[in-house]
Specification:
single chain; 257 residues; mainly alpha
Length: 257
């Protein structure tokens, strides 16, 4: 995913790609390398956004806020970045104000809706979380907002509307493994057996192994899940989501290799 995003950044620069790349580098444990991304050909303010995200994921929230604040002209992306820094500092009211400012400045930028949704969800404010998702989907048609909406529906066990949303996501991004993972949860909720799930979602053997591990984890078969994730790590060490799930299993259940 990281390599694809970096190629896309060269081909068609977008500040949003900087946010995605920062998350990828952080999840891979390589955030120190994020600062070295080549922004040749990108507008000058991209460097400030990149710097702000680098500081943010390093835990230097004051420096992150300062970097985003220096972005000229001010944009939804810089305001969201400032909001992320404030949220990381525990200043939730200030983060909300900045996200709302971002939404007002650029209503078509989905990041402001996304992070307002995360903020409301963190505070247990489900009505506002649902409302901001609905508004964002209407105004941006963002697959990422649809993805979060599907998760909300699944948590509420609203399987019929969740099915509709996930089918739409599959139409938009048929090869997205995160969407397939969510569909795996839906199938299990509908009574499909854990063993059947992988074949229904992919013909790729590596993906099948991953989805089988995910299905085992969702079904509370933790030892089976760990074994499958371990097999997957041997086949494809770049599937970092599998590694993260393995770490969670080790920590949660103190299982030993």
């Amino acid at each position: 995913a990281r390599v694809i995003l970096e190629e896309e950044l060269k081909r068609k620069p977008s500040p949003y790609l900087l946010f995605l790349l920062a998350e990828c580098y952080q999840k891979e444990g390589r955030i120190a390398e994020y600062e070295k991304i080549n922004l040749a050909g990108c507008p000058p303010f991209y460097e400030q956004i990149k710097q702000g995200l680098w500081y943010l994921y390093q835990g230097s929230y004051t420096l992150a806020y300062s970097s985003f604040e220096k972005v000229k002209p001010e944009s939804a992306y810089s305001l969201v970045g400032m909001g992320l820094a404030r949220k990381a500092e525990g200043k939730l009211s200030e983060a909300k104000r900045l996200y709302l400012s971002a939404k007002g400045k650029e209503p078509a930028c989905h990041l402001s809706y996304l992070h307002l949704f995360f903020l409301y969800s963190m505070k247990g404010d489900e009505p506002n979380a649902l409302e901001i998702l609905a508004e964002g989907i209407t105004k941006t048609n963002s697959p990422q907002l649809l993805y979060e909406f599907s998760g909300l529906l699944l948590r509420e066990n609203d399987l019929k509307p969740a099915t509709g949303v996930l089918l739409e996501l599959t139409r938009i991004e048929p090869d997205n493994i995160l969407i397939k993972e969510r569909i795996a949860f839906l199938l299990l909720s509908k009574g499909v057996s854990m063993e059947e799930v992988p074949d229904k979602l992919s013909s790729n053997k590596t993906e099948q192994l991953y989805l089988g591990a995910v299905a085992a984890l969702f079904s509370q078969f933790h030892t089976t899940a760990l074994r499958k994730f371990s097999e997957l790590k041997e086949k494809d060490s770049d599937l970092y989501r599998a590694r993260l799930k393995m770490l969670w299993l080790y920590k949660e259940f103190s299982l030993k290799k």
